[in-house]
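Worked example 4.2. Below are the chains of a multi-component assembly; read each line carefully before continuing.
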Amino acid sequence: MTSQHQLLDTLAQVARALGNGHRLALLERLAQGGAAVETLASTAGLTVGNASQHLQQLRRAGLVTANRSGKQMIYHLTDERIVTLTGLLRQVAETNLAEMERLVSRLFADDDAEGALEAVSRDELLVGLESGKVALLDVRPEEEFEAGHLPEAINIPLAQLEDMLDKLPQDREIVAYCRGPYCALSHEAVQRLRQLGYRVRRFEEGYPEWKAAGLPVT
Amino acid sequence: MTSQHQLLDTLAQVARALGNGHRLALLERLAQGGAAVETLASTAGLTVGNASQHLQQLRRAGLVTANRSGKQMIYHLTDERIVTLTGLLRQVAETNLAEMERLVSRLFADDDAEGALEAVSRDELLVGLESGKVALLDVRPEEEFEAGHLPEAINIPLAQLEDMLDKLPQDREIVAYCRGPYCALSHEAVQRLRQLGYRVRRFEEGYPEWKAAGLPVT
DNA sequence: CCATCATTCTATCATTTTATTGAATGATGG
DNA sequence: CCATCATTCAATAAAATGATAGAATGATGG
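Applying the procedure described above to all four chains together yields the following structure tokens:
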């Protein structure tokens, strides 16, 4: 077996590490910031044992690192570019797989028909923030918000949405974001806030993409 | 199973399609331009039947398309971004896997010790071409050269290198390139030309990366 | 229409991957 | 040092993947 062959095989191992839905879910959570195995397991809907095994695979592929902190092992992405990598994977898949399009439209299908719910692009969001016409709402759990968020964002975890409406400004359009393009939290938040009469749309990406693009975070 | 879960699974299928060394080899060849199954099989060192099966998988993942031309099926990449995707995969792997570094350095280990063989970066190459101080040498097979190459490049397939030395300019440094960062052709060419006293280095990327970066091709 | 060629499909077996279970390890606080 | 907690390891069974050989398909040239 030639060196070149071995190189491609090693690359393939890394790609295989990305080739499982649970592991992609783990990576999505890790893109929000470091987390312990139990946290990761519950976000991904896995048993702790199983999550641990998947994390070992990601570690062997060089995608995550683990550091002990007291009793817990805290996992981190090794490389910011992994967010870009999965984002590009997503783009290629959305463009070239009909199946993908079908699933994406289903995920966002229960929008009302007004069309105003179309997601806000990164550029549009930047303009809105610059002009002060947009308020940012982060609907992720507090722990993830604390680990990093977009500048000026207000954190209202989805579970407490109706209890904390007083934190929302009335005079500006609200843009809600969460973990990424496929994260349902911001979508759900938009649905519920619109029912209550708020002017609100989703950001089409999430915190990790914003950060990976080199934009400022807090 | 939620829609979101299905989306990640579908993404994972695409990643799994990249998760095999033979398929990465097929994609590398396809990044040079369309090709028939037998061509692809022989470049990747596979039987035709086996290559066909791998190509079906790539097709199901939306990474390649097939069009019949007479008796032959001609395969193409569906999307230029696939080159960027595998390139990013490579970068992440090289940065985070010790194994990878070891293999890369072995692939390029038999350089003589002068150090002058360090690869030429894209930016450096652009400057050299601009100033007219560099001549480009494409050492891929003629068929791939014909399907597309860097501007002003001279084509001398590696097999005919010694027979066509008269096509090489004497007054400029030569930069050789081939299929990509792991393609051995340009490396081999540099070794042999240096033995003959030529001033020559490798381009660290290849034709597909150049094209995917939006730079001009012929 | 028949023979030929390129490719794909089918069936099979060996290998690898995944989830599950329960035991083992390693750090902490009393 | 012991009990506890978080995590990993080990063993297993079920499912998916990969290679091979041979049959089937589809287009071509006579």
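Take a moment to check your reading of the output against the notes. Residues 3-79 of chain B form a domain with the Arc Repressor Mutant, subunit A fold (CATH 1.10.10.10). Chain B has a mean pLDDT of 92.
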